[in-house]
Specification:
Blueprint lengths: L2 E2 L11 E3 L5 E3 L6 E6 L5 H10 L6 E7 L9 H6 L4 E2 L2 H6 L6 E4 L6 H10 L3 E5 L6 H13 L4 E4 L1 H4 L1 H11 L6 E9 L4 H4 L26 H10 L10 E9 L9 E8 L4 E7 L6 E9 L2 E5 L6 E5 L4 E3 L5 E3 L1 E3 L4
Parallel strand pairs: 4-5, 4-7, 5-6, 7-8, 8-9, 10-13
Antiparallel strand pairs: 1-9, 2-3, 10-14, 11-12, 12-13, 14-15, 15-16, 16-19, 17-18
Helix pairs in contact: 4-5
Length: 335
Amino acid sequence: MPSIGQPKPFMKSTCWSADISGHLHATSSSNPVTVLMVGIGGYGYFYLQTLFELIPADQARLGGVIDPLAKRSRHYPRLLQERVPVFDEIEEYFRAGYHADLAVIASPLQYHVDQSCVALNHGAHVLCDKPIAPVVQEADRLIQTARNAASWCMIGYQWSFSRAIQELKRDIRKGLFGKARRLKTLIFWPRDDAYYHRNDWAGKIKDADGRWVLDSPANNAMAHFLHNLFYLLGEEAASSARPADAVAELYRVHPIENFDTAICRAHTECGAELLFYGTHATQCEQDPVFHLEFEDAEVSFGETTPEITAMTRDGESRVTDRRRTIRSSRSYSTL
C-alpha cells in the first residue's frame, strides 16, 4: 500500500497538496513547504539534489538535515553556505524548536519506522523510502501512528505513483482484461563485494545494535517490483491485494548473512498467482520485466519494449487516445 491513511493537504503550509496517486500539486500560497531531509547519503542524496535543482524556492525550502554522516555528502558545503541546521538524530531537530511540514525519510531501512513515527508525532507529513520496515510488527506500528496523527505517510514505491502504472491499474479495476490469473516479474541486478561493504548493514539480518535489517533483493533494491504485483490487483486506488499464502526459495552466493537470490510464489485472496524472481548474483544484468496474465488479455513490460503493452485475446479493436490505442493491443506510457 503506497499511502497510509487518506492523504490530507498540508496543514501549516499549503503550497502543495497531495492526491490519492501520491502526486504533489502546487497551489497558491506565499509559504513554501518546509522539508526535513532524514538521511542524505545513498538515495537521500538524489532527494536532496532534486529539492535543490528542480523545486522552486517559493514552493519548498530545506528546513534541516538529519544524518550523523552528513559531512561525507557532496551537498555538505551547500548546507553550510545556506546555514541549514544539521543534527545526528531527528529528535534533536524538534527539541531545538524547529518544525517541518514534510519529512523525507531516506535513512537505512532499520530506522524508517522510528524516524517516521517521530516526524508524524510532531505534525509533519512523511514520505518514507521503501521498504516500509524490515518486519511486520514495525509496519503495523507506523500504520497505527499515522492513523492517530493529523498527517499522512507515504511509502516511496515510485512505480506505484507513475502515470503508466496508475493508468494500467485503472483498466484492471474496470475489468477491461478480465480476472487476473498469473502475474510474474524478473530482475537480475548483479552486485559485487563493494556493494555489500558500502555500509555496516548491507546483507545483514540485524545491525550491530540488534535492530532487524533483513536486507535482501526482495526487501530492498527490488522491493518496488514485488510490491507492484500486489498493488496492481488492489481493489482501490490506494490499496494492494493481500496474500493468502506464500512460499519461497532463498539462496546465498555472496559471503553475507542474508540471501541475495529469491524465488517467490504467492496467491492473492482473489486467487491470482504471483511470481517473483530476483537476484544480485548473476553475471548478466536484466532490468525489471513483468508479464501479467488475465482471462481476456496479457500485459507485458520490458520483454520486447520499454512500454507497458496489453494484448487482447479476441483481437477487439478500440481506440482511446494516441498513447492508448487498442488494435489487438493497448500501450501505456513508459515507466
